[in-house]
Design goal:
Layout (H helix, E strand, L loop, with lengths): L1 H10 L6 H8 L3 H13 L3 E5 L3 E6 L6 H5 L11 E4 L5 H10 L7 E4 L21 E7 L10 H17 L5 E4 L3 E4 L2 E13 L2 E11 L17 H5 L5 H22 L6 H7 L6 E5 L5 E8 L5 E4 L5 E4 L5 E4 L5
Parallel strand pairs: 3-4
Antiparallel strand pairs: 1-2, 4-5, 5-9, 6-7, 7-8, 8-9, 10-11, 10-14, 11-12, 12-13
Helix pairs in contact: 2-3, 6-8
The protein binds adenosine-5'-triphosphate.
């Protein structure tokens, strides 16, 4: 009821009477008053005026389940939120909750991760309070070989949302899973799948976004950035999460319809920072260089090799670097 009550206050242009809230939720005045008290304790500024009711004057920068669920406008993505103040890894939480029957589209969100993960056992730095760490659970009915494309969908959803909310920022994607601002990494995505050879049980897409962080550890200082550092302003994290859920739901619908990324190849390529540039493909079977052309309908990166042939590089175990550095 807390999230619904908050939504009522949010969507009303006038005071909301205590009586109408009691009737709407079928609870007593005391129960309404108690929830108002809880919201105030969390930092919501709610005015109470005799004979008029309650009015939401301002709200804090928090990404609690209540905050997100009171603002979400999607059909299914992120409608159910599991919030953690601190956790090991939101991907691990989502995988555990998937076993427990958590719904398609549920979202685990945390303020801090103690074991944030990148690809191939790497670490995702996840300090408390300033950023977004979240994992979306999907229960798709397409075949497992298509799941790696979901990483591209999420990268696109993140890039689009940042561009829409902060049009002054120059957003790019380093294929397949990094979102960059001014060529520095602001977001990493880790997709993990639980599947049998011909059927997916569930997929978890983890997203880490540096939002309001202003200092980075030595190891990543040169490549990492945050939205706040690039924009020079504090950023509303909840608005970002909600926008990403909307955009992901939109792209996911197209992906399921076409069973590939053909409907948004050109949008993705428009963000590609390596497009038309020489790249080094760090393939465990052997490193090679070529000119990155863009992605194909399966989300592979097309790299034109010096011998004139073209290679479709699938994400999996491969990393792509610029010829002189990170991009
Ligand atoms: P590659 O480019 O080789 O594919 P990656 O960029 O996909 O690697 P990820 O697994 O997405 O790597 O992310 C982990 C890497 O990102 C770490 O090894 C570290 O270099 C960097 N990193 C870790 N935490 C952060 C952070 N909070 N912000 C930016 N970069 C980070």
């Amino acid at each position: 009821m807390k999230a619904e009550l908050l939504r009522e206050l949010r969507t009303s242009t006038d005071y909301v009477s205590g009586q109408s809230l009691c009737e709407k939720f079928g609870v007593s005045r005391t129960a309404v008053w108690k929830v108002i008290g809880q919201l105030r304790a969390e930092g919501y500024d709610i005015e109470a005026v005799t004979n008029r009711g309650y009015r939401l004057c301002s709200y804090p920068d928090i990404i609690s389940g209540c905050e997100l669920m009171s603002r979400i406008n999607t059909e299914w993505a992120g409608r159910k939120v599991y919030f953690r103040k601190e956790t090991g890894s939101t991907n691990d939480d989502a995988k555990y909750l998937a076993e427990e029957g958590m719904d398609h589209g549920s979202l685990v969100v945390a303020e801090k991760q103690t074991e944030g993960k990148g690809r191939r056992g790497r670490v995702w730095e996840s300090p408390a309070g300033d950023n977004i760490y979240m994992s979306l659970l999907l229960r798709p009915d397409f075949s497992p070989d298509k799941a790696s494309m979901l990483t591209l969908l999420m990268a696109l959803a993140v890039a689009d949302t940042i561009s829409q909310l902060h049009p002054e920022l120059k957003v790019g994607i380093k294929w397949p899973n990094d979102v960059l601002i001014n060529d520095h990494k602001v977001c990493g995505i880790l997709t993990e799948m639980n599947a049998e050879p011909d059927c997916i049980h569930d997929v978890v897409i983890g997203v880490g976004i540096n939002v309001n962080q202003t200092e980075f550890p030595e190891e990543i200082r040169k490549t990492a950035t945050s939205l706040r550092l690039e924009k020079g302003d504090h950023i509303d994290r909840a608005a970002l999460i909600l926008g990403i859920m909307e955009m992901f739901e939109y792209y996911y619908g197209m992906f399921v319809e076409h069973q590939d990324v053909s409907a948004f190849v050109s949008v993705y390529d428009g963000y590609l920072v390596n497009r038309g540039k020489e790249v080094r493909v760090l393939d465990p079977k052997g490193e090679y260089t070529g000119i990155a052309e863009g992605i194909n309908d399966s989300g592979a990166l097309i790299v034109n090799l010096p011998d004139g042939s073209a290679k479709a590089v699938s994400s999996g175990e491969v990393s792509v670097r610029g010829i002189y550095g990170y991009i």
